Amino acid sequence: MFHADTPTPPPGTVIHELTSRIRRLPPSCGPVRLVGVDGHAGSGKSTFAGQLARALGGAPVLRLDDIASHDELFGWTGRLLDQVIEPLRRGETAHYTPYDWRARRFGPPHALPPAAVILLEGVGAGRRALRPHLAQLLWMELPDEESWSRGRSRDGEEQREFWAGWVRAERRHFAEDPSRPFADLLVRQCEKGYEVLSGPAGTIGPDQVITQGDGPSAVC
Fold it and tell me: What is the tally of structural domains in the chain?
């Protein structure tokens, strides 16, 4: 639920505009407004989802890194539907088992109670099996090669082999099950803050800016 003691984002900022839009959406998964934050690995999804969650008063963030595993980089749909989507759809607390990428095993169950908004963040959050349960789909608008370069720099040389396999898997996933064509909004990181454009699935032209960044000095 939204917390009254969380500061409201300043009017006119991207986050303020976006939180207002999300709060007005009808529930999409039982009592929950499930909002997908998708994009290429390294595109800034986690950072943006964290900021949006705080602006929404501490909305829970379910990170798909906790659902995927070394053996199932993208083959986790059934587990997510069974462990998370179906319980939430019934208005019940979901229980999922987060994956430990270092230990290479799933941990103890983690509870995810229904909330007014839950953010589903990660590569594949907008896949076709999940879209019927989403109130809105956001896509981080950064090209694949640029995103992957950022991700490799972030993770360092020790993850070089993993990234080689990941890029092949991600290319295959989006070729078979693209998310961006179904995004309601495109989120572009700027020098300061973000700008949000109507996405391919939106009702406004895809190149029309609907918010102009977090503050007058924001430049993309």
Answer: 1
